[in-house]
Specification:
With 232 residues, the chain is an alpha/beta fold. It is built from seven helices and 16 strands.
């Protein structure tokens, strides 16, 4: 169960979120606050035990961004707001989803899906030459490097395309490459893509086909790719 907290000065909004959370089996509501300062004090004391916060932005005495700053909370976050101008600022906080008021259960579930994607994390101590463990919903899942066809970088996150599932992980391409130093079958072909040569079926000067996906080849990576494969 993922432990949730709601901080919102709108009691009606809290009532709706509390109802939606109670209907979602993977979530547990542990606290709600209409007072921003009380919510801040709770986070300072308990933030290590919280999996997800639903946070309003515009509140009296202290806004949501100030709560994040002073609590130093850096876990999963869904921003809720009636002011759509807060959407851009919300994602600058690394929120996994922006939930505009009023919202439906369908919109709420979209936010939870994004939260579950972002919840997958690399365990920095879990690397070996052949596999990696990632944390997914409180479980550590083993992923064989041989099962990864390519990796796509998306800002502070990467997506690992595996045989049966795609994992979205909080990491960067460069950090992931550091862990692949002993795996020569992985080659960076673009600033946003690393491919597994075992899944490379063909390529030209501009694109590569990896596990059925067309992947761009950056100009600075062309020679690196050519030097990594055998030619007749």
């Amino acid at each position: 169960m993922n432990r949730c907290v709601v901080i919102d000065d709108d009691a009606a909004s809290i009532a709706v979120l509390s109802h939606y959370i109670s209907k979602t089996k993977s979530l547990e509501l542990v606290a709600t606050f209409t007072d921003a300062i009380e919510g801040l004090n709770f986070l300072v004391e308990k933030k290590g035990t919280i999996d997800l916060i639903f946070l309003d932005i515009e509140m009296p005495e202290m806004n949501g961004f100030e709560i994040l700053k002073h609590s130093q909370y850096d876990g999963a976050l869904i921003v809720i707001s009636a002011n759509h101008e807060n959407a851009i600022s919300a994602f600058e906080t690394n929120a996994c989803f922006y939930l505009p008021k009023p919202f439906s259960y369908t919109q709420f579930l979209k936010g939870i899906e994004k939260f579950k994607e972002a919840e997958v994390r690399i365990d920095p101590n879990s690397y070996s030459r052949d596999f990696i463990f990632v944390k997914d919903d409180r479980l550590y899942k083993k992923i064989l490097f041989a099962d990864i066809s390519y990796c796509e970088g998306k800002g502070d996150y990467i997506s690992l395309k595996c045989k049966t599932q795609t994992y979205t992980i909080k990491s960067t391409i460069s950090n992931f490459l550091d862990k692949l130093a002993s795996n020569p079958e992985f080659v960076q072909v673009h600033r946003s893509y690393v491919i597994n040569l075992h899944y490379l079926t063909d390529f030209d000067s501009d694109t590569a086909v990896v596990d059925g996906k067309i992947i761009p080849i950056g100009a600075k990576y062309k020679e690196q790719l050519k030097n990594s494969v055998n030619f007749l």
